[in-house]
Amino acid sequence: MLVGLVLGSVLLTGCTSTTTDAPGPVPVTTAGASVAGTPTPAGTVTAPAPTGSAAVAAAVVVGPGPSGTYRVQAQPAPGTCHYRVLDAVAGSVLPDPVCTPGARNPAVTPATLRTTICRSGYSSSIRPPERITSTEKAASIKAYAYTGNRRVVEYDHLISLELGGDPNDSRNLWPEPNSATATTFTNAKDAVENRLHTLVCSGTITLAAAQDVIASNWTTALAVATGTSS
Fold first, then answer.
1. Which of 67, 162, 157 minimizes the C-alpha distance to 113?
2. Which residues contact residue 134 at a Cβ distance below 8 angstroms, ignoring those fewer than 6 apart?
3. Which of 97, 105, 102, 101 is nearest to 63 (CA)?
4. What pLDDT, on a 0 to 100 scale, did the predictor assign at position 207?
5. Phi, psi (5° rounding) for residue 87?
6. HEC states along 97-151?
7. Measured torsion, CA atoms of residues 186, 148, 28, 176, in degrees rounded to the nearest 10
8. Is the pLDDT assigned to residue 53 strictly greater than 90?
9. Strands 84-87, 103-104: pairing kind
10. For 191-204, what is the mean pLDDT?
11. Does residue 113 contact residue 144 with C-beta atoms inside 8 Å?
């Protein structure tokens, strides 16, 4: 296309923040919520997510694309990436825009939609093997200082494969926390990705629009892409 809570273990904003270890729960101030978590880096930052036209990503880079010989990709240094927490209970969390801005698959273009993401089985055919992603996920979890339940945190493509996201560029992958009650990887972002995929393949919205909005803020992506937000 991730806890309980957990999300007190993450700070907000970009990779330039500095942190120190704290011995007890630290409240993390989010957009409209305060979450008390487990022992975590100290500090609080308020960072409301962008909405409307401001939610569109400034730029999404192009990754290396699919490969028949995937290799483990280097991840950001431990503790240098910070989540943007919108709603910890619901699992509405955005990645660090510096560490994980998103990356496009160069094989997916408006001209190739029918032979790539709009063809059944394409996403599965380019997905890196678990022996690669499991190693990357462990390093990415350290980069984001995630301390929650690893069984429900997904090593997720920010721009999903079905929307033309790069399959193994570290800039397009992050450990996505799930909601507080989750027992699997399945989460609200998956439904957004599926709907955007349908809109792209039906010609309702452009590929670039779908990629931009999901990379910027998946929680408002559908509203922005369909013009139903302010």
1. 162
2. none
3. 105
4. 98
5. -150, 100
6. CCCCCCEECCCCCHHHHHHCCCCCCHHHHHCCCHHHHHHHHHHHHHHCCCCCCCC
7. -40
8. no
9. unpaired
10. 98
11. no
For residue 176, how far is the Cα from the chain centroid?
A: 6
Q: Output the pLDDT for position 61.
A: 94
If one counts every other C-beta atom within 10 angstroms of the C-beta of residue 204, the result is: 13
pTM comes to: 0.77
Would you list the domain boundaries of the chain?
7-225
Distance separating alpha carbons of residues 18 and 11, to the nearest angstrom: 10
Label residue 46 exposed, middle or buried (CB < 10 Å: 0-12, 13-18, 19+): exposed
**Structure tokens of 85?**
């927490």
- DSSP notation for 72-86: PPP-PPTT----EEE
Q: For residue 84, what are the β-bridge partners?
A: 94
- The confidence score (pLDDT) of residue 229 equals 67
What is the C-alpha to C-alpha distance for residues 78 and 175, in angstroms, rounded to an integer? Answer: 13
Give helix 188-201 / helix 207-216 axis angle, nearest 10°. 160
pLDDT band at 206 (very low <50, low <70, confident <90, very high): very high
Q: Return the amino acid letter for 195.
A: R
Of 105, 114, 103, 106, residue with least CA distance to 203: 114
Q: Which pLDDT tens digit goes with each residue over 135-181?
A: 999 999 999 999 988 889 999 999 999 999 999 999 999 999 998 88
User: Nearest 10 degrees: CA dihedral of 82, 123, 60, 176?
Assistant: -10
